[in-house]
Here is the input.
Amino acid sequence: MIKTIDELLKEVGRYNKSLKEHKIIRNAYELADKLHGNQMRESGDKYIVHPLNVAYTLATLNADTDTIIAGLLHDAAEDTDITIEEISEMFGKDVGKLVDGVTKIKHIRVENDLNNKSTDIDEMALNIEKIVNSMNDDVRVMIIKLADRLHNMRTLEFKKKKEKRLRKCKETLYFFAPLAYNLGLYNMKCELEDYALKFIDEEGYKKVTEMRKKLYKREEKILLEMKKNLEEKLRKERILSKEPIKILVKHPYRIYRKLNKGKEIEDLTNLFCLEINVKSKKDCYTALSVIHNEYQYIGRKFRDYISVGKTNGYKSLHTAVFTDKDIKVHIKIQTNEMAQRNNTGIASRWNKNKESKTTMQEVYHGTEFYKSLKKIITTYKTSDELIERINLLFKPGIYIVVNQTFYRVPPKAKVGDLPRLIPNIFDGAVKITVDGKDVSLNEELKSRQSIRPIFE
Here is the structure.
């Protein structure tokens, strides 16, 4: 966590050198500090620490100045005496609209616990509709909300009531982490999941993190040797970017899910990952060839997410190999541009600071995620139907290929479910083929199948 405005401005200065805009951000901070005054967080920190950290998270995503200011003021309209009109007058209409948008969804609950008698399905459906509509107007509102949720999860240990902690965690796993994923905010998604697991199953979290640490320590020398070897080989090809090869370990929550499905941690081919950045798209395939010449390839583990990308914009090559000591290692190959897009998703559009609002909204409206959400929101007839369709859209699952794009569908989904799962593509289809063959609508979909809707 950060504690000072200077730390925030240092992060902003990494991508935005405008001293004029830095001054405006400082003015917004000073106003927020004054407005929140002696308000305190349950952690014992002054309240201003929360909006300051929300703004900092946004800055790590290269957020534009209006969004940084809105992050600093996102609680002010509700928790202090200032109005949206006054915020708009001081910092512009866009800032006012962003703060207003976050304020309207501040207390929205979307935890899908239908076994809980206090859960109101109609209220939850309305809340989800409000969130979706806020993103349709300006997707930056939801990115601010995600940054807000992330800091709240980082400080969740200070929330005194256990039931409130658990509700936040369930809500995070059900809605906010999948939302971050669908917007391409992968690092944020993983962190949200890990914090949620920490409080939902503390013993399970400790067990996984200890196993993870122990296995990495055992294999560290082999991984470092492999890293060094590949760096030498790829430099000879003159394709390696300036970024060093990274050794990554699978996030605790993802390991936890695999173990709960009966897998052994040693059997995971992506427990350890080498992340390799190269200079160009062509170099990705050259690097793949070098790797497969050096190490034994593990069958059926190659994924080309460059030729056939994911719907959230993710692009890279995935493969898995055995090291000389028979350790399974996952390898991800990407360009620097792909790496930035893979980790920050739609937020990568903030690079063109002055055009970010329009550009981001155009990009968001072009995504399959937006189109699917829009179709769901405009066609659902009952609250139960809305929740069911949102569940299907957000649920972890398998990937199928449609029109040169990977789509995620729930495990055990059937061919006949596709018009409901991906309505913007399959609505009105008279027939659906799987790998070029006619199949029953009750046929269960399998990973990496090629699906085609037929309209005539």
Q: What stands out?
A: The two ends are 57 Å apart (CA to CA). The chain has three domains: 5-200, 203-344, 368-454.
